[in-house]
Structure formats: structure tokens, C-alpha cells
Amino acid sequence: MSGHSKWHSIKHKKGAADAARGKLFARLCREIEVAARTGGGDPDTNAGLRTKVQKAKEASVPKDNIENAIKRGTGELEGVVYEAMNYEGYAPNGIAIYVECLSDNRNRTGSEIKNIFSRNGGAMAEPGAVAWQFERKGLIHIGPGSTEDDVLLAALDAGAEDVTEAGDGFQVITPPTELHVVRSALEEAGIKVESSDLTMIASTSIELEDEASARQVLRVVDALEDHDDVQGVYANFDIPENILDMVMG
């Protein structure tokens, strides 16, 4: 498993800590509101909403919070209107970063994201500067207990593009439109699915060969992820496992 995949696996497991601070719940409910506003409040007919509701359930967001977020999105309850916006930039060592946000104040968010880049040794870029390096994909996390052959058979037959090891489990990459189909096929095959979501995956990666470089890049990523309006941070770095172990140790 690449260092980048391992990093994402570690970030995935940190979700419980985010939830304890309340940030994860707020972000997930915000995503649900936007999905309901853009595609309707029925998860059966709104694939985007279905993905976000599933993600919230996996993070143990209370049912009432989910239902109220949907109602705010459809206008049944009053709420803030959030706008989706993306920002692009570079971390040290030429690492491309793509940031997805939901905000009720575009000017404030843009200024703050720019400051995060500059304070941490990075720089904002013009729209389109790095977006071409990333592609929307479905990502499924498989927990321990399944064999690689079982996961490969169920996933690839259902339309998955790739299966890779991730710690004591696996990661399954799918076309964005096939995420739910592949997840359902895995579950029907008795394979434990820990989570699934849409993500952005870089077409190529830059390897960070020393601890100092890794820390510089992860400093920018962590600062961006800590911003309340940020929903996702995607980058094209790869950190060898021995370097990542030093950074995380």
C-alpha cells in the first residue's frame, strides 16, 4: 500500500476524534443539506443525497440530525444556504492540492483558505491550475475479515475499477456512478463495508522522500482540513511508509 493510501486510511480512522469535537457531524449535515437542496429530499431518487446519508450513518450521526438536515435542504425548516466552491493551490515541494468547501460567505472563505496556504508555506493557484490532475471516483473501505480474492471477485464483477490493500482491509475504487452498485454487491457477498464516499484521486503522484518534506506538506493539508468550511482536501503526494511512520510516530 502506498504511503498516500496509508495516510488516507489513518485520516479515515481519525473520524471518531473529529466527531468528538463536533466538526465531523456539522460537516456531514452540511453536505446533506446541499445534496437535498440540489436533488430533492428522497435518498431513493437522489443518489448524491443517498451517499451523504450513508456516510453520516456510518459516522453515527443521530437520525434526527440527518432528518433535520434534509428538511433544511428542502426548505421545510429554516437554515443557512450553503454554496459549493472549490479552491486550488500548491503545498511545498510542488504538491498539487484541490479543496472542496461549503460556505455561506464566498469572500470570507476564499480569503481564509488563501491565508491557510500562505501561512503554511503553500500558495493559492488560479482555477483550473491543478483540477485537471484529479478525477472523481467512488471509494469504499473494506474492514478486516475478507480475503483479497473474495473482494476482487465481488467488486470487479459489479463494476469496480481497482482493489488495493489498506492496512488490515482493502480500498475499492469505482466510477462515481457505480459506487452504490459496487457497495451493494460487496455487502450481498457478505463482505464488511466500513464506509463509502465520493472522492478525488490524483492521476499521478509525487513521492516525498524525507521526513521534513512530508511534514511540510501534511502541515498544509491538516490546516486546510481543520477549517470549518472545508469538506475535502485532495493532494497528489505519496509518502513512503517508513517516512510516514516517522511522521505519525
From TrEMBL:
What UniProt keywords are attached to this protein's entry?
A: Cytoplasm, DNA-binding, Transcription, Transcription regulation
Instruction: Decide whether keyword Iron is in the record.
Output: no
Q: Outline the segment boundaries, as ranges, of region: Disordered.
A: 37-60
**Compartment(s) where it occurs, according to its Swiss-Prot or TrEMBL record:** Mitochondrion
> Does Transcription show up as a keyword for this record?
yes
Q: Which Gene3D superfamilies match?
A: 1.10.10.200, 3.30.70.980
GO CC terms in record: cytosol; mitochondrion
Q: Locate the TACO1/YebC-like N-terminal domain: which residues?
A: 5-76
Give every TACO1/YebC-like second and third domain span: 82-237
Q: Name one GO molecular function term.
A: DNA binding
Which family does the record assign? Belongs to the TACO1 family.
Q: Which NCBIfam families would you find in this protein's record?
A: PRK00110.1 (NF001030), PRK12378.1 (NF009044), YebC/PmpR family DNA-binding transcriptional regulator (TIGR01033)
Q: What is this protein called?
A: Unannotated protein
